[in-house]
Amino acid sequence: MSWTQTADHNTFDPEKLKKLNIFETSDMFCDVYCISPGQSQRVHAHANATKFYYVLSGTVEATIGEETRAIEEGMLAWATPGQVHGVHNKGDSPARLLVVMAPNPNAERAPA
């Protein structure tokens, strides 16, 4: 499939952030992160990849490098290679993010 409706990727897990893969190639991956209130992706870095977070719904706090700020529906944040990044839902409502990273760190297992 070469297209999808992101609204169809909408599964939350009460225990942890849910990553729903939309597609993956050897060049990149594209996921929807479903983040319930209080859940987060820890701050981390990828030495050789760029990652972006696009907010589909809700609001999260995104850390990119030394800065943390609230990003809401329609906003985009990205981390360049080696830059620390992570997200946290401090609000009362669930949030959904479109997350893309290239190159794909899992390239060896991704379809060509």
UniProtKB/TrEMBL annotation:
<dbReference type="GO" id="GO:0046872">
    <property type="term" value="F:metal ion binding"/>
</dbReference>
<dbReference type="InterPro" id="IPR014710">
    <property type="entry name" value="RmlC-like_jellyroll"/>
</dbReference>
<keyword id="KW-0479">Metal-binding</keyword>
<dbReference type="InterPro" id="IPR013096">
    <property type="entry name" value="Cupin_2"/>
</dbReference>
<dbReference type="InterPro" id="IPR051610">
    <property type="entry name" value="GPI/OXD"/>
</dbReference>
<dbReference type="Pfam" id="PF07883">
    <property type="entry name" value="Cupin_2"/>
</dbReference>
<feature type="domain" description="Cupin type-2">
    <location>
        <begin position="33"/>
        <end position="100"/>
    </location>
</feature>
<protein>
    <submittedName>
        <fullName>Cupin domain-containing protein</fullName>
    </submittedName>
</protein>
<dbReference type="InterPro" id="IPR011051">
    <property type="entry name" value="RmlC_Cupin_sf"/>
</dbReference>
